[in-house]
Design goal:
The protein is α+β, with helices and mostly antiparallel strands. Bound molecules: guanosine-5'-diphosphate and magnesium ion. It catalyses: GTP + H2O = GDP + phosphate + H(+).
Length: about 600
């Protein structure tokens, strides 16, 4: 296809504002998929995404559209991931297209995620077409949303297109706007090949499938190509496009978006943002801006049942095949046995992986406290990147510790602002900005990532009844008074419950954890002290009283079946418990004890 007849675009939206539904309508309106094959949320392939209503991996579709000017156009839609954890992936897919539809739910207005993604689009020099969705609903207020878009985002909303992705109203106008208002891509067909790697995933039959945007030159089936970040050379088996199923084409020219397969075994070897060129007479300079994405949140995953360790290894290996940004290494814990220390891009990423292991592989897990990466500066001048509190060196050898900070943007209706400020303050936040857009406030906070990784989203949602939206980006490291706090159960340290904490908060966190554990650990035949300690110093303590009687003692030997039932119940309960010395700790204690409220 010649460049003048190509338009590449993405859709920017906050979760639930209608991105997937709009994509469905565009696909349907252009008969890209036969009526028979059309199903809801065509682009959201993964189950877990459907259930949670979030798009995790970028998806793409090529649409053919005959415009009102009578010409045939190829429209390539890249559906970007909609979550903060995947900001880098979003930024790359934005570089692969020239324009964005900014979808705003006209009953809701602009949200934090809309902002983050639209700024990425602006950074990528996109032409942006505002689309106000859900006009079929009585609460739709287009004037208010237009005002917000202009006030908060600062882009012209006069050409916004009112649509209902549900009824199909306005969809033609959207297609026309894509053709008439978005620029055609540029590129030189005869230059050396430069294709940007936008995404990749593992397919059991085809190996790794690589989504690319050709910038210059031509990507041909049968060619030998080089991935510039690692120098790996592969023979291209297939080249094709998504409609949205895979369809082979002989080649992809400049401005085109499609896939290649090359018998690549691991997604690890195909990093988002990499430049692909030909082995011979290739480009000498890669495209700018490549950086391999790094995990920022770490936690231990252990099977509740130690016999399932091999199954867990298997599950993790399989998931890692398809996820270059998920890292893992074996870990042994005195308390939890064999497991893995895993790294994630963020909390959602962690949850998704943990969920998949439990659901798809049927393995019950104990998850240890999520930790960020601390920079531990030693007295001898060296620096350790600490991502497991269990590995904290002897504090007398430590000079100072730095922790990662984030810039958080929160949009919230006025009436909840006070609660949000308090929450951020409680989490050691420093307020950077507070502005108003209509009846909503936008606050910007500088926060320690550590205070956000555990339950910040949950807390934010609950104090604002779900009305706040939140986004963040990493800003850098800063020194603070941080210490490792241990929890001792029956005098034995439970390393899975060790956390790094600010010294000023250690007492209150320690007390809260001990109180929680006291409720969560069942009583035993003996008294159990539960303590929080820094170094050798106990800073909080609770005592779990001894159980007076055996659970079956009441059964007077006579009622055998009742006795057996009770014992069975105990046994089933035990499966979900971990033994620490002589003490059984239930699985949920590991998570609940860490929650702050
Ligand atoms: P996404 O998270 O941005 O992909 O949003 P979805 O496309 O999944 O839509 C979120 C919800 O809004 C779904 O329940 C849709 O059925 C609904 N929805 C999307 N567009 C419209 C619309 O134009 N009108 C109405 N009434 N509902 C819509
Ligand atoms: Mg969606």
């Amino acid at each position: 296809t010649d460049l003048a007849h190509i338009r590449n675009f993405s859709i920017v939206a906050h979760i639930d504002h209608g991105k997937s539904t709009l994509a469905d309508r565009l696909i349907q309106e252009t008969n890209t998929v036969s009526e028979r094959d059309m199903k809801e949320q065509l682009l959201d392939a993964m189950d877990i995404e459907r259930e949670r209503g979030i798009t995790i991996k970028a998806n793409t579709v090529r649409i053919e559209y005959t415009a009102r000017d009578g010409e045939d156009y190829v429209l390539n839609l890249i559906d970007t991931p909609g979550h903060v954890d995947f900001a880098y992936e979003v930024s790359r897919s934005m570089r692969a297209v020239e324009g964005s539809l900014l979808v705003v739910d006209s009953t809701q207005g602009v949200e934090a995620q809309t902002l983050a993604n639209v700024y990425q689009a602006i950074d990528a020099d996109h032409e942006i077409v505002p689309v106000f969705n859900k006009i079929d609903l009585p609460a739709s207020d287009i004037d208010r949303v237009a005002e917000q878009v202009e006030d908060v985002i600062g882009i012209d909303a006069s050409g916004a297109i009112p649509v209902s992705a549900k009824t199909g109203e306005g969809i033609r106008e959207v297609l026309e706007a894509i053709v008439t208002r978005l620029p055609a891509p540029k590129g030189a067909p005869d230059a050396p090949l430069k294709a940007m790697l936008v995404d990749s995933w593992y397919d059991a039959y085809l190996g790794v499938i690589v989504l690319v945007r050709v910038i210059d030159g031509t990507l041909k089936k049968g060619a030998r190509v080089r991935f510039m970040s690692n120098g790996a050379v592969h023979g291209v088996d297939r080249v094709g496009v998504f409609r949205p199923t895979m369809q082979d084409v002989g080649e992809l020219g400049p401005g085109e978006i499609g896939f290649l397969t090359a018998s690549i075994k691991q997604v690890r070897d195909t990093r988002v943002g990499d430049t692909i060129t030909t082995e011979k007479h290739g480009a000498t300079e890669p495209l700018p801006g490549f950086k391999p994405s790094q995990p920022v949140v770490f936690c231990g995953l252990f099977p509740v049942d130690n016999a399932e360790f091999e199954d867990l290894r298997d599950a993790i290996d399989k998931l890692a095949l398809n996820d270059a940004s998920f890292s893992h290494e074996m870990e042994t814990s005195a308390a939890l046995g064999f497991g893995f220390r895993c790294g994630f891009l963020g909390l959602l990423h962690l949850e998704v992986i943990r969920d998949r292991i439990e659901r798809e592989y049927g393995i019950d897990l104990v998850t240890t406290a999520p930790s960020v990466i601390y920079h531990v500066h030693m007295r001898d001048g060296s620096m350790i990147e600490l991502h497991n509190p269990a590995d904290m060196p002897d504090p007398t050898l430590v000079d100072h510790i730095e922790e990662p900070r984030i810039k958080a943007t929160i949009l919230v209706p006025d009436e909840y602002l006070g609660d949000v400020l308090k929450l951020c303050q409680d989490r050691r936040g420093i307020q950077e900005d507070l502005t108003y857009a209509g009846s909503r406030a936008m606050v910007v906070y500088d926060l320690p990532l550590n205070e956000v990784v555990f339950d910040f989203y949950d807390r934010l949602k609950s104090v604002t009844k779900g009305y706040a939206s939140f986004d963040y980006q990493m800003t850098g490291y800063r020194q603070d008074n941080l210490v490792k706090m241990q929890i001792l159960v029956n005098e034995e340290p439970v390393d899975a419950l060790s956390i790094m904490v600010h010294r000023d908060r250690a007492e209150s966190r320690g007390r809260a954890m001990c109180e929680k554990l006291k409720d969560l650990i069942p009583r035993h035949m003996f008294k159990i002290p539960i303590q929080a300690a820094i170094g050798g110093k106990v800073i909080a303590r609770e005592t779990l009283a001894a159980l007076r009687k055996d659970v079956t003692a009441k059964c007077y030997g006579g009622d055998v079946s009742r006795k057996k039932k009770l014992l069975d119940k105990q046994k089933a309960g035990k499966k979900k418990m971990r033994q620490f010395g002589k003490v059984d700790i239930p699985q949920e204690a590991f998570i609940s004890a860490l929650k702050m409220d």
